[in-house]
């Protein structure tokens, strides 16, 4: 079904501390090992904050080697989220700045609420996005626009983020959660193996030249041919009923 990861660190607007990072990594691992998860929503329980980025107060007390280790763990955790073999949706209400936007970029789809503030302002602090922002943002909106946003540290409105293609939908009312939930429910009836292979084909194929990518797509397609779900889909179509997929 639909599973939800809740961020809930109100005093810091979900700033990413070492403790939060460990808990988040464990939550992702649990989801990866549970076969009944079909769609994941990543949301915040904190008003006006999806994630404010790294916990700079905690980082202020770190040695350079501690910072390096933290960033490595951050990248590892974000990569674990990105490579989950199921669709993921970031529910962005409030600030999603720095590491907060980098976190959202690890999800397949993003929905912004009317109060969302989105950006990578790291250069204003004389650093750069260190958890994949320079790479993932460029892949989402193109190199030139990504450079502009990172060089300027500009904070975007929800509509600006939608226009650039950073988010898929922009809520007209306060919260983005109803839109994200509707989107998840629209995905839910699809075959789980097909979703897994589609995600893999798109993610891996986008890093290859076209001929290699088409070969990889074919390899992914071959994975769905022998499944019980494919036969069920054909039977359901013939019988004019909704299919019942079991992920087999």
UniProtKB/TrEMBL annotation:
<dbReference type="GO" id="GO:0006635">
    <property type="term" value="P:fatty acid beta-oxidation"/>
</dbReference>
<dbReference type="GO" id="GO:0016836">
    <property type="term" value="F:hydro-lyase activity"/>
</dbReference>
<dbReference type="InterPro" id="IPR014748">
    <property type="entry name" value="Enoyl-CoA_hydra_C"/>
</dbReference>
<keyword id="KW-0456">Lyase</keyword>
<dbReference type="InterPro" id="IPR001753">
    <property type="entry name" value="Enoyl-CoA_hydra/iso"/>
</dbReference>
<dbReference type="InterPro" id="IPR029045">
    <property type="entry name" value="ClpP/crotonase-like_dom_sf"/>
</dbReference>
<protein>
    <submittedName>
        <fullName>ClpP/crotonase-like domain-containing protein</fullName>
    </submittedName>
</protein>
<dbReference type="InterPro" id="IPR018376">
    <property type="entry name" value="Enoyl-CoA_hyd/isom_CS"/>
</dbReference>
<dbReference type="GO" id="GO:0005739">
    <property type="term" value="C:mitochondrion"/>
</dbReference>
<dbReference type="Pfam" id="PF00378">
    <property type="entry name" value="ECH_1"/>
</dbReference>
<comment type="similarity">
    <text>Belongs to the enoyl-CoA hydratase/isomerase family.</text>
</comment>
């Amino acid at each position: 079904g639909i599973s939800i990861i809740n961020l809930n660190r109100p005093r810091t607007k979900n700033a990413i501390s070492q403790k939060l990072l460990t808990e988040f990594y464990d939550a992702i691992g649990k989801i990866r090992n549970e076969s009944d998860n079909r769609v994941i929503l990543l949301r915040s329980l904190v008003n006006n904050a999806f994630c404010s980025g790294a916990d700079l107060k905690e980082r202020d007390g770190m040695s350079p080697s501690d910072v390096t280790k933290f960033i490595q763990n951050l990248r590892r955790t974000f990569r674990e989220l990105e490579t989950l073999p199921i669709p993921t949706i970031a529910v962005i209400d409030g600030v999603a700045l720095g590491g907060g936007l980098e976190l959202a970029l690890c999800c397949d789809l993003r929905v912004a609420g009317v109060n969302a503030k989105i950006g990578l302002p790291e250069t204003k602090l004389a650093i750069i996005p260190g958890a994949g922002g320079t790479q993932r943002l460029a892949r989402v909106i193109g190199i030139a626009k990504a450079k502009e946003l990172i060089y300027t540290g500009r904070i975007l409105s929800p509509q600006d983020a939608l226009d650039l293609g950073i988010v898929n939908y922009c809520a007209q009312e306060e919260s983005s959660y109803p839109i994200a939930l509707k989107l998840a429910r629209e995905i839910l009836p699809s075959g789980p193996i097909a979703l897994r292979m589609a995600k893999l084909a798109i993610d891996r194929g986008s890093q290859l030249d076209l001929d290699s990518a088409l070969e990889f797509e074919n390899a992914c397609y071959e994975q769905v041919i022998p499944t019980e779900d494919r036969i069920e889909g054909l039977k359901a179509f013939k019988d004019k009923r909704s299919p019942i997929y079991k992920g087999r």
